[in-house]
Amino acid sequence: MKVYLDNNATTMLDPNAYELMLPFLKDMYGNPNSLHQYGSATHPALREALDKLYAGLGANDLDDIVVTSCATESINWVLKGVYFDHILDKERNEVIISSVEHPAVTAAAYFLKSLGVKVIELPVNEEGVSTVEDLRKVISDKTA
Hints:
Largest sheet: 2 strands, parallel
Shape: extended
Mean pLDDT: 91
Structural class: mainly alpha
Order of helices and strands: HHHEHEH
Distance between the termini: 47 Å
Low-confidence stretches: none
Oligomer: single chain
Strand order of the largest sheet: 1-2
Number of strands: 2
Number of domains: 2
């Protein structure tokens, strides 16, 4: 029997999602933000999906949710946002990451390090989990 254990990286596509996406994979493949005919054809479906997402989450306006293209983009957006909102020209200059982060987190954190931010790598236990006790040892008033 085969068992797939890498759902953290990518997950099997649910058959219902496959059926719903098929028109966009076959015929409606235009970038919904493009002004040409192919983009214009897909834009209403994207708008409908976003409206359902906002309604389902109780989001009030367009600033409540940011949709990105991938995890790496999201990670960079958040960590660099922390830098500009909480570190640049302020007293806080430390970030804490775990020692087993995804490479995208580590790369973004070490980009911040190149800007003068102190990056603290929190150790993990034998189960791969950082403990609250270890976090308490390194968190400080300088932590963003």
